[in-house]
Design goal:
Thioredoxin_domain; Serine Threonine Protein Phosphatase 5, Tetratricopeptide repeat; disordered N terminus; 6% strand; 3 domains; 68% helix; Thioredoxin-related protein-like protein; alpha+beta; AGR/TXD; Glutaredoxin
Amino acid sequence: MRFFYILFFYLSLQAIQSQNQFVPDDTPYKTALENAKKEGKPLFVMLYADWCPHCNQMKKEVFSDPAVIDFLKKNYTCAWKNIEKEEGIALKDKYGTKSLPAFLFIDPNNETLLYALKGESKKADFINEANYALNPKMQLPYLEKQFLADPSNSTTFFTYLNTLKKGKDRTDLSIPTHIYLNTQSDTQLVSELNWRVIANGVTDIKSREFQYVLSHQKDFAAVASQNRVDRKIESIVNELLRPYVDNLDTINYYKQREVAKSIRLQKTDSIVFKFDLTLAERTEKWDFYKKVTLENTEKLVWNDASFLKDIGQIYLKHISDTESLNKSISWVKHSLELNDSFDGNLLVARLYNKIKDKKSALKYAKDAKGIGAEMGWSTKDVDDLLAELNKK
């Protein structure tokens, strides 16, 4: 009898959980589009992926609520598309979706995007946005028309931009941003309002606006702050180079690297340096890694003890010529001047061992053992090195 009670409890629990679990239907997109036309409603599409945690959270917390589904079905024809399946891939490409989850509100008569949202939100916020999407004067085509009627009008520009960025990534905002900024003279660019536009919408490192920022940093710092100007410069270099590093696109990386280097500021040189090393590691281009570190380590990361040790570890594993190894030893020894550490001393000992300087290797190995023993840490690695050194 007890078994049946447990079984009944388990099945009841499963039933409750299944009731609270939203399962998207698989209505074909064209069918949903035709249904929307017949019903005279906009088409609502959620783009998702099974591996996306924010998508799954929206299914669990928002779309499992009958009130949300009732609202959507009353006002929209709905479709749910996985971006890893044929229709989802096509819609993702058609509407330039880069972030998940994505929510598209579409005019079924011409498939114009009326409104778009991205990311996770609470129920109330989602319902509010879905209501805004029903208002013609809050939809993207109307706001775009208002903006283009007078591109110099900052009010209509910001209204359009703020609605656009609810569903688009920052790089997708560049066209309206440049249309607006083209109505501004160089001197007009230096204002608190136009700084906000540049900071949030300019992503092209070669653009007139960004080049003007570079040559008039003090002027922009006066209306924003030097820290904000610095962050913008660093951000635009990151946005330029990161995609090529992430995709291991060495050809285009080296081309754009020269553009970033042309800025000729230490803060941007430091960003390029770190991207260089990341790409060299991921593509195992150790000659390039060595060249870049020999040229720039002391200029760009000389006071970063952790980074100096990271470079030393790469030299220990992948660089073989004695001259370069001696240089890496000097870098790691400088890291010990900044922060004496167990791992730093052990690394110097291993580097000396690699160039067959037993005396120096023993000294730093003993220093590492002393630090480890004092801190109560395991000294197995250094004990193994000492044993190896004492055999020689």
